[in-house]
Amino acid sequence: MNYRIISVTSLMQNCCIVWCKLTRESIVIDPGGNFEKIQQELSDLDLSPVKILITHGHLDHVGAAIELSKCYKIPILGPQKLDKFLLESLLIKSKDILLKKHLDFKTHSWLEEGDKIVLGSLTFEVIHCPGHTPGHIVFFYRKGRFLISGDVIFKGGLGRTNFPKSNYKDLMNSIYMKLLPLGDDITFIPGHGSISTLGYEKINNPFLQ
């Protein structure tokens, strides 16, 4: 498995391009904005994505999804359906006509706990991790001990829970009951900031002590 992290939007969100080394099939995870930047990176890597995956419904994770979907004629998958209200609210809140055009989409398929995303020889498991948002999901490549964690956990931090329908208790339950049991050796790419491992965070993350 190969991946490339692209920092997008003023919030420095980690958009990820992941591809199978054997088949060159690729996906884009959380294209939060800067469509041209993502498109250029795909071109430089000589990749044409087959799917777009979304961890949750906040603007900085979905802002360029519809443009990529239309450009490459590929489906948008995720998040879990409890984030539907967030995706719908993006249009309501936006007063920019051009931005409304870019956000006027519905996911092609909601994802649920236990669903699997196949990418060439790679298989990602969907894990529902509510808390930051009620429909937040993460993508786990078990064989490669690799996790795309979105805004659940960061290096030295946790996802915020001061948004509509966020819940701190749910967030901690997601971390302690679903993520940490995956193993200390799991490398994860968070929605913002640096790569880390679950083992490092268990010991060093001040919010988990």
UniProtKB/TrEMBL annotation:
The keyword Hydrolase belongs to this UniProt entry's keyword annotation: yes
Superkingdom as given in the UniProt entry: Bacteria
GO function terms (MF aspect): hydrolase activity; metal ion binding
CDD domains cross-referenced by the UniProt entry: YcbL-like_MBL-fold
Pfam family, one: Lactamase_B
Cofactor: Zn(2+)
Gene3D superfamilies: Ribonuclease Z/Hydroxyacylglutathione hydrolase-like
UniProt keyword list: Hydrolase, Metal-binding, Zinc
Coiled coil: none
Residue ranges occupied by any Metallo-beta-lactamase domain in the UniProt entry: 12-192
PANTHER family: HYDROXYACYLGLUTATHIONE HYDROLASE GLOC (PTHR46233:SF3)
Protein name per its UniProtKB record: Metallo-beta-lactamase domain-containing protein
